[in-house]
Write a structure and sequence with these properties.
Elements: E1 5-15, H1 32-44, E2 51-53, E3 62-73, H2 74-80, H3 84-95, E4 102-110, E5 122-130, E6 145-146, H4 153-162, E7 165-168, E8 182-192, E9 197-204, H5 211-223, H6 229-238, E10 253-259, H7 266-274
Parallel strand pairs: 3-10, 5-6
Antiparallel strand pairs: 1-3, 1-4, 2-3, 5-9, 5-10, 7-8, 8-9
């Protein structure tokens, strides 16, 4: 930026991920970050609006509760507007020129200690699927996975309960260099809608790459009788990728909420999150 940072702004947004190649900007591909940064460039007349996001969703994944932050100069802050409603109206107006699958709900000034990624306490996702007994619905097909098999919801829930807690989830993550797969799974609850759709609520302090879809695939394998509870536990303890369950399709997944601490705890939370957790501590 040409001028010194004047303010940090938190953006709360939602998007239909169907026609996006994920969040992260990639040359030649339409991404959420790319569309949002292009809109900010137009609005703020800058070539470098750096966005930091709570979670980089994959291709086809949706969000109703995504959070990002951006730093702006004094001149940009004044041009954009000093109240959230004005900022939201202006940015959504520009975003409409790039499609209607991204909407910003609020844009609030936050302390510079706020970090959309590292200050987060936990993230909550939702996964939606239909078993063989449920009627298919073309109006929700973009957001719900249809499976041609019968599923035992009680077995799925029991398997989900067994995965809760602080664990090394390497068996459910795509490996990334210099990263850890130690996460605390706080909630993995299932419910069923009157239409027969199975809905998973999955919450953790953080998730590694493809973890949510792999977890759902693993418990669905139990619910369909492909593997047993004991085999699922053994797979988790093995800490290596396996072909005994299928990573579920992206379009059934949505980021629903990202929770943050009080403002005076933001810096400490970010510092704690950046501390790499050693899998050996779980032994």
């Amino acid at each position: 930026m040409e001028d010194e940072t004047h303010a940090r702004l938190r953006l709360d947004l939602a998007y239909d991920g169907t026609d996006f190649a994920g969040w992260a900007k990639q040359p030649g591909l339409r991404t959420v970050e790319g569309v949002l940064e292009t809109a900010l460039e137009t609005l703020l007349r800058t070539t470098s609006p750096r966005l930091t996001v709570a979670g980089r969703t994959d291709t086809g994944v949706h969000a109703r509760g995504q959070v990002a932050h951006v730093d702006v100069t004094a001149a940009q802050f004044e041009k954009w507007g000093t109240d959230s409603r004005t900022r939201v109206r202006k940015l959504n107006g520009v975003l409409k020129m790039h499609g209607r699958d991204v909407v910003v709900h609020s844009i609030e000034e936050v302390p510079t200690s706020f970090d959309a990624r590292f200050s987060a306490l936990r993230r909550r996702y939702e996964y939606r699927l239909r078993g063989a007994e449920a009627h298919r619905d073309p109006l929700t097909a973009r957001f719900t996975v249809d499976l041609g098999q019968s599923l035992d919801l009680a077995a799925i829930q029991h398997a989900s309960d067994e995965l809760l807690g602080l664990n090394d989830f390497t068996s459910f993550c795509k490996a990334r260099e210099r990263s850890t797969s130690v996460r605390e799974l706080l909630c993995f609850e299932w419910s069923q809608t009157p239409e027969g759709v199975l809905v998973a609520r999955i919450e953790a302090d953080a998730f590694c790459h493809s973890m949510v879809r792999a977890l759902v695939g693993a418990v669905v394998a139990v619910g369909s009788g492909r593997i047993t509870d004991a085999e699922l536990t053994a797979l988790r303890e093995a800490r290596k990728r396996t072909s005994q369950f299928t990573v579920m399709p992206a379009h059934g997944l949505s980021l629903e909420e990202v929770a943050y601490p009080a403002h005076d705890e933001l810096a400490a939370r970010a510092e704690l999150t950046r501390t790499r957790r050693d899998p050996g501590l779980l032994l």
